[in-house]
Amino acid sequence: MKFTLDIEDKNIIFSDYSNENINGKIYKIYLAELIQPTCPYCRSTHLKHNGHYVSNVHFITADASKPVTIGLRKQRVLCNGCLKRSMA
Predict the structure, then answer these.
(1) What are phi and psi of 2, to 5 degrees?
(2) What is the pTM of this model?
(3) Exposure string (b/e) for 38-62, b if CB count within 10 Å is 16 or more?
(4) Residue 31 and residue 16 in contact, taking contact as beta carbons nearer than 8 Å
(5) What is the pLDDT of residue 1?
């Protein structure tokens, strides 16, 4: 799926896709998860998973008649090193 959308970010993991009819238009819906490998404050890799935040990203394509939406699950983490919270 990364090749279809030409996304090169190694922290985005795609899991599934489907076609849905929304307001009379067929949308391609891709499900993905954004992984946070290190703490942005102290660069520690000792992170505690603390849930997800789901956002729908409208992806721009060359063919406007086939819109694409990415259901992106962003990881929320708590750093065990500096005790700060962050989101991917």
Answers:
(1) -65, -35
(2) 0.74
(3) ebeeeeeeebeeeeeeeeeeeeeee
(4) yes
(5) 54
